[in-house]
Specification:
420 residues; alpha/beta; Aspartate Aminotransferase, domain 1; Aspartate Aminotransferase, domain 2; seven-stranded mixed β-sheet; three-stranded antiparallel β-sheet; 14 helices; 14 strands; 35% helix; 14% strand
């Protein structure tokens, strides 16, 4: 029995600004996978692009660079990052025909994720709008929402190979629109945008004085001769922020080293960039040991090309994934030209009531395969899945045996799934 003078304890609730913030890649499905593993089962995880989980190692030269500089990595560094790393990033921009970048235009963060959140927080007032691709990497939508902005999704349609149409996008611009996000190479679709698309998007941004946020974390992860063109090489008359890092190209997710580089028309953006530096100062600095790997990474041999070649490990695993999809009676896909993922569509003709979220949960529960529902990437349809092709070829073949088995049971009426 409660004493009359004891306080009434109300429920502790999440803050209202978290309403609408989602990140399904590590959401309920991932939690369910952990429960299944605790029961003693092995789960094949295709939900996260985490190379180390599948035996990929960072280049040894990067590891040595960190070890040799540990004595210089025990204290805080400058809020924008250490000089050698930022200087190496500036030199890389020069090699890619991006002009006018100085060391003061480079911020290093604890991964690109932190920098995305900081860039949105420094820019947006409540109800400001940001154009975000659909499908998108959901952190972009979450970051805009978290700071009180509104993510306006522009379609990258499957029938157009997930490449956006600038004319369609322009119709979404309002007086509240502040920026446009470009993800190239794209996660989750693997699309690599052609020059004419990037030129049209940049011209659109310049005409409307929009900040361009170009997420290029997969810039060297390319297949079948695909070529990546940095957005900043085309952007002159508005501010362009380019995001890169060590996580994917250099298989170093755990180092948490990402960067953002400002270029283009910077003169009228000094106040914004100074605001970003305030936020960088508040978190003191990014992970220092990992920053000592940047100069070696950018200046050394680019081992990613050996992996993405047709005969390389990523090239072979991508081919295995595409074969699995091509041989499936239920799946089709726009071939990914970049990144580490495919975004196949499920033919639901013989699958009444199909939803990607219900199927993904059943696939995990019955077949112990973890994928991400396509609708998690802020699209209006629910017949796609995102899979990474980081596992070895034999594992990928087994994944499609299990996917087709479950879809076959559903099509034959042996299994009925309730929407979740």
């Amino acid at each position: 029995m409660r004493r009359a003078d004891s306080p009434v304890r109300s429920e502790v609730r999440r803050a209202s600004h978290l309403e609408g913030v989602r990140y399904e890649i590590r959401g309920p499905l991932a939690k369910r996978a952990l429960e299944i593993e605790r029961q003693g089962y092995e789960v094949i995880k295709l939900n996260i692009g985490n190379p180390a989980q599948f035996g990929f190692r960072i280049p040894e030269t990067m590891r040595l660079a960190m070890i040799e500089n540990l004595a210089q990595a025990e204290g805080y560094c400058h809020q924008k990052g250490i000089f050698p790393a930022r200087e190496a990033i500036v030199m890389e921009t020069q090699s890619r025909n991006i002009s006018g970048v100085t060391i003061e235009d480079v911020f290093i963060g604890n991964g690109v994720s932190e920098l995305i959140l900081m860039c949105m927080e420094a820019l947006l007032e409540r109800d400001d709008e940001v154009l975000v691709p659909a499908p998108d990497y959901p952190l972009w939508t979450a970051a805009v929402t978290l700071v009180g902005g509104k993510a306006v999704h522009y379609p990258c349609r499957p029938e157009n190979k997930f490449v956006p149409d600038a004319e369609e996008l322009e119709k979404l611009i309002t007086p509240k629109t502040r920026a446009i996000v470009i993800i190239n190479p794209n996660n989750p679709t693997g699309a690599v945008y052609p020059r004419e698309t990037l030129e049209a998007l940049v011209k659109l941004a310049e005409r409307n004085k929009l900040v361009v946020f170009s997420d290029e974390i997969y810039d060297r992860v390319l297949y079948d001769g695909a070529e990546h063109l940095p957005t900043a090489a085309l952007c002159k008359d508005t501010l362009c922020a380019t995001f890169g890092g060590l996580s994917k190209v250099y298989r170093a997710c755990g180092l948490r080293v990402g960067w953002v580089v400002f270029s283009g028309h910077k003169e009228n953006a000094r106040d914004y960039i100074e605001g970003l530096e305030v936020l960088a100062s508040l978190r003191l600095c990014a992970n220092v040991p990992g920053q000592w790997a940047v100069q070696t990474a950018l200046g050394g041999q680019q081992s990613i090309y050996e992996l993405t070649a047709e005969s390389g490990r990523l090239g072979r695993q991508r081919a295995a994934l595409l074969r699995g999809i091509e041989q499936s009676p239920f799946l089709s896909v726009v071939r990914p030209d970049g990144a580490l993922y495919a975004y196949p569509r499920v033919d639901t003709t013989a699958l009444p009531g199909f939803t990607d979220s219900a199927f993904a949960m059943e696939l995990l529960t019955r077949e112990h395969v973890l994928v991400v529902p396509g609708s998690s990437f802020n699209v209006p349809y629910n017949d796609h899945l995102r899979l990474t092709f980081l596992p070895d070829e034999e594992t990928i073949r087994e994944v499609f045996i299990r996917i087709d088995r479950l879809l076959g049971d559903w099509a034959s009426g042996k299994l009925k799934l309730a929407a979740r």
